[in-house]
Each structure stands twice: as C-alpha cells, then as structure tokens.
From TrEMBL, chain A:
<keyword id="KW-0288">FMN</keyword>
<feature type="domain" description="Flavodoxin-like">
    <location>
        <begin position="269"/>
        <end position="407"/>
    </location>
</feature>
<dbReference type="InterPro" id="IPR029039">
    <property type="entry name" value="Flavoprotein-like_sf"/>
</dbReference>
<dbReference type="InterPro" id="IPR001279">
    <property type="entry name" value="Metallo-B-lactamas"/>
</dbReference>
<dbReference type="InterPro" id="IPR016440">
    <property type="entry name" value="Rubredoxin-O_OxRdtase"/>
</dbReference>
<dbReference type="InterPro" id="IPR036866">
    <property type="entry name" value="RibonucZ/Hydroxyglut_hydro"/>
</dbReference>
<dbReference type="InterPro" id="IPR008254">
    <property type="entry name" value="Flavodoxin/NO_synth"/>
</dbReference>
<protein>
    <submittedName>
        <fullName>Flavorubredoxin</fullName>
    </submittedName>
</protein>
<dbReference type="GO" id="GO:0009055">
    <property type="term" value="F:electron transfer activity"/>
</dbReference>
From TrEMBL, chain B:
<feature type="domain" description="2Fe-2S ferredoxin-type">
    <location>
        <begin position="2"/>
        <end position="95"/>
    </location>
</feature>
<dbReference type="InterPro" id="IPR036010">
    <property type="entry name" value="2Fe-2S_ferredoxin-like_sf"/>
</dbReference>
<dbReference type="InterPro" id="IPR012675">
    <property type="entry name" value="Beta-grasp_dom_sf"/>
</dbReference>
<dbReference type="GO" id="GO:0051536">
    <property type="term" value="F:iron-sulfur cluster binding"/>
</dbReference>
<dbReference type="InterPro" id="IPR001041">
    <property type="entry name" value="2Fe-2S_ferredoxin-type"/>
</dbReference>
<dbReference type="Pfam" id="PF00111">
    <property type="entry name" value="Fer2"/>
</dbReference>
<protein>
    <submittedName>
        <fullName>Ferredoxin</fullName>
    </submittedName>
</protein>
Length: 425, 95
C-alpha cells in the first residue's frame, strides 16, 4: 500500500478542471509516484503534467496535453469545461512526450482544431505523429490567434529546454503559459504556489537540470518575458505561480546570470588529471606551468580524489579545461569519464579544451578524450600530447608548449596560420 | 584541382581546400568553434555566419534552405555540415 500523501487529496475540481483565471482552466494530470524524470532527475515529490484551456467568445484553445498514460484524466478535466467541437486551437509549447502524449487522441476528437507551434517544432512534429498533412501553423514572436474577444500571442523562446520551446501569452488575463520554463517537479493537488508549501528547492533543482545548460537562452527569453504584466505564470509542471510570479522571474534571472567577470580577470584554465605512477601528473604540472607563465589563471585537480559533481561549477566558470589520463585497457580511466559525462549539464560552447596523458603501449585515452570534448562542443585547437611510460624532457616540453599555446588561443594572441587541408590528419 | 581558401575567423586559421569541400570536413580538425549535432543538415546546431565570400559557396539545397528558414537564420548564414566551398576566399565564424 502506498503511503498517504496530502498531495493527492482532495483532487482539485473533483476530477474536473480548475479555474486559474477568468475563463482559463487547468486540465492537467497528477503523477504522484514518479521517482525519476527523463532518466536524469530525481522526482521524490512526483510531478504534474499541466495543460490548460482558454475560452474565448468564438472558440476554445487547449494549451499542451499530458503524458499518454494520463490521458483519461486529461480528457475528463477537458470535457468538464469544453466540447471537442469548440476547440479551435491546440497550442504546443513543447513537443516532449510528457506534454504531447494525449495529442494524437485529442486531434482525433477535435475535428476543428489547428495546431500552433514554433517553427523549430514543425519538423519534430513529424517524428511524433508520423503524418504528412496536419493542420499546423508555425508561429513566431508576435503572431497571434484570435479566440473571439481575446487572443493568444506567442513568444519564441528556444532551448528552454528543447529547440522547439515557446511561451504563449494571454494578455487580458495576464497569464503566461510558459511550457517547461518556471516548472518544478512537485505533485500537489493544492495546485497553486500560495497553497502547496515550500517548493523553492524543487524549483531550483529543476532549473539546475533542465535549464542550466541553456542559460544564455534563458536570459534571452527573460528579456522577452520581463516587460509583460504577468499576473499568473502557468508552467507545464508543478505549481501554478499566481501569488508572486515576479519572484520566479527574478529567480530565473539570478540562476541564469552569467558568472561574474571582473574587468582584467585572467582567463581560467582548470587542469584535471589522473596518474598511476606520476607520469601524467608530471605532464599536468608542466602544462599548467606553461599556461600560467603565459598569463592564465590555472588550477590543478587530481581526479582520484575529486567528486565530479563538485567540479561542474568550476568548469562552468572556466574558459578552458585540459584533461590528462593514462591509457588503461585501451581507454581513459573511469573518473575521467565520470567527469566528462557530467558536463552536459552546463553550457560549454566556446570553451577551449585539450588532452594529454602517459601510456604503456597504445595510448588511446588522449584521442578518446579529445573526441568527447568535441562532442561536448568545446574547441580543441591543439593536438594532445602523449608520452610513453616516463615522459622524456622533449615530451614534457611539448606539454609545456601545449599550455603556452592554449593560453595564446584564450588571450587572442594565437598566430594566424595558413595551412593546406592535405596536411590535416 | 581548383582550390579555395577558408578562414575560420574564431581560431585565426586559413585552410587551403579543394573545391567542393564542406566546412565540416575542415573545421573540427583545426579546432574551430563551429559545433555539430546531427551532421545531416537537420538540427541547425552548426549554423555558421559567412563573414565574407558567401558567393563562393555552393547554393543551399532545398532541405538546407528550409532548415535555415525554420530556424530563423539571419542573412548570410549557412549550415557548416552542408555548405561547400567552390572557389575564392571565404571567411566564416560560429553563429
């Protein structure tokens, strides 16, 4: 038997829709026992899939749907406030299956509905519905849909947290339907931020896992959203934010803020390494010294004793990282992969990377690290340095040069080079 | 074989390439900041600004043109995984 949970009782609207503003209803579904979301987030408080209905004088708009397994709940709430023939618009702020699971059935039941989604969502929709002729209108910032006496307008807000994401604004009621932005994984039938208790940690945790890799996009979205006279933020997960919507906007601004860059601050390089016999450690040391002598702020970290989740903040603020690993059984060593597999939670584009390491007979670690760093969208302008067993003075000098040259790239002092493609490996 | 010169402005490297080379074939090898996702002209991750020499690139395919439109790409931007350099001097940088 599952434990009693105040989040489940009583069901708001007794299984029907819940009014969140004049002629605007929540028609979502509760998933109280979900304990892991998208394989990467812990959801010890479950979640909700929020969908909404907006009624105008001429028709009705449905904004988002729910995960497929919760379709019955969604349709029950929808039917309590609208008839399918009235549905003129289905707005998809985000196409991920937890918001589009009920879409195929909704399209079947609502014969007069047209889909409104972002231009970048249109090609994704094909992958979702596998149909060629759909009643779809791609929309961008400023486009509107008239529902009779009130209209929805759209804000193109990509990468919150998929390329397709957008927000939908109902001006007369001051409601912003924000998709996954401003959400939290909290399942609580009390539904509103002023009723559900303290969920600040859940709000921040959700940001850290869904929005943090896209901070620049969050800032751009906030520039569009901030001028709106918002009275209610209606996200696709968790509480509807009606009491202090401005608090959540400010909180996103704080969480998405760029790291402080005091004027004159040296560019930062973090050197992470592992070393079984001291060789890769020696290489790390001279690389760091070379970079430091060329004007970088350099920090060395032995991965044998560092927990990767503590290093993410450092990497996020770094301008470059260099990773050193010996090759063991034809591979880089696991703590290196633990670090590298943690880095997709932050924005990395534009940072520089480099790899180095000692090896016994094959030395695959360095190219494997370089490949992963490229996959993470770092720039790798310089070939990595490898040394067999004990680095020679020449190999250590090459490591030092790697640090020096990396510093030149970071400080814009790299020499302009002209090369022939045939010379590239 | 006819050659062309592509300058990757963000890393300060000019590469002499055979006519018909796609930007993707060069940019990663020299560590330029153009990043890739699907590598098949669909995801728009590799959107690249053509600073000069736009006319020296092969015209975009119907598919690339549609992807550029869907992603609201500004003028003189191309997908690095698709754009082929035909001749002359071309300067590019990450969008």
């Amino acid at each position: 038997m599952k434990p009693a949970d105040m989040s489940l009782s009583p069901d708001p609207g007794h299984g029907g829709a819940v009014e969140i503003a004049e002629r605007v209803h929540w028609i979502g579904a509760f998933d109280p026992w979900l304990r892991n979301f998208d394989l990467v987030l812990r959801t010890e408080r479950g979640t909700s899939y929020n969908a909404y209905v907006v009624r105008g004088n001429r028709g009705v708009a449905v904004i988002d749907t729910v995960k497929a397994a919760f379709s019955d709940e969604f349709f029950r709430r929808l039917e309590s406030v609208a008839q399918y023939e009235e549905i003129q618009a289905i707005v998809l702020n985000h196409l991920e299956p937890d918001h589009t699971g009920a879409l195929p059935e909704l399209l079947r039941r609502a014969p007069n509905a047209r889909l409104y989604l972002s231009a970048r969502a249109k090609p994704m929709l094909k992958g979702l519905l596998h149909a060629d002729s759909l009643p779809v209108t791609p929309v961008i910032t400023g486009d509107t849909v008239d529902l009779g006496g009130r209209s929805l307008s759209f804000l193109t807000t990509p990468c919150l947290h998929w390329p397709d994401t957008q927000c939908t604004w109902l001006e007369d009621a001051g409601v912003l339907f924000s998709g996954d932005a401003f959400g939290s994984h909290v399942c609580d039938a009390r539904l509103f931020d002023d009723a559900v208790g303290d969920f600040r940690r859940d709000f921040d945790y959700y940001f850290a896992h869904l929005m943090r890799p896209f901070k620049a996009h969050v800032r751009e979205a906030l520039d569009l959203i901030d001028p709106l006279p918002i009275r209610t933020l209606a996200p696709a997960h968790g509480p509807v934010l009606r009491e202090t919507p401005q608090y959540y906007l400010r909180r996103y601004r704080q969480l998405a803020g760029p790291a402080e860059q005091p004027e004159g601050r040296l560019k930062r390089l973090h050197v992470f390494y592992l070393s079984a016999y001291g060789s890769t450690r020696a290489m790390a040391g001279v690389l760091a010294a070379g970079a430091e002598s060329s004007g970088l702020h350099v920090s060395l970290h032995d991965l044998e004793t560092c927990a990767p989740d503590l290093l993410i903040d450092l990497v996020e603020e770094a301008d470059a990282i260099a990773i050193g690993s010996p090759t063991i059984n034809g591979d880089a060593v696991k703590p290196v992969w633990d670090l590298l597999s943690s880095l997709n939670a932050i924005e990395l584009r534009g940072k520089f990377g480099a790899a180095f390491g000692a090896f016994g007979w094959s030395g695959e670690a360095v190219p494997l690290i370089e490949e992963r760093l490229r996959g993470l969208k770092l720039r790798i302008p310089l070939p990595g340095v490898r040394a067999r067993l004990i680095p020679t003075p020449e190999e250590l000098a090459a490591c030092r040069r790697l640090g020096v040259e990396l510093a030149k790239h970071l400080t814009g002092k790299a020499d302009h080079r002209v090369i022939d493609m045939a010379t590239l490996a | 074989m006819p050659k062309a010169n592509v300058t990757f402005q963000d890393v300060g490297i000019t590469v002499s390439v055979p006519a018909g080379t796609r930007l993707i074939e060069v940019s990663e090898k020299i560590g330029a900041g153009i990043t890739y996702g699907c590598r098949e002209g669909e995801c728009c991750t590799c959107l690249t600004e053509v600073v000069s020499g736009y006319e020296h690139l092969a015209a975009p395919s119907v598919l690339e043109d549609q992807v550029l439109k869907d992603n609201l790409a500004p003028r003189h931007h191309r997908l690095a995984c698709q754009a082929q350099v035909l001749k002359g001097d071309v300067i590019v940088k990450p969008a």
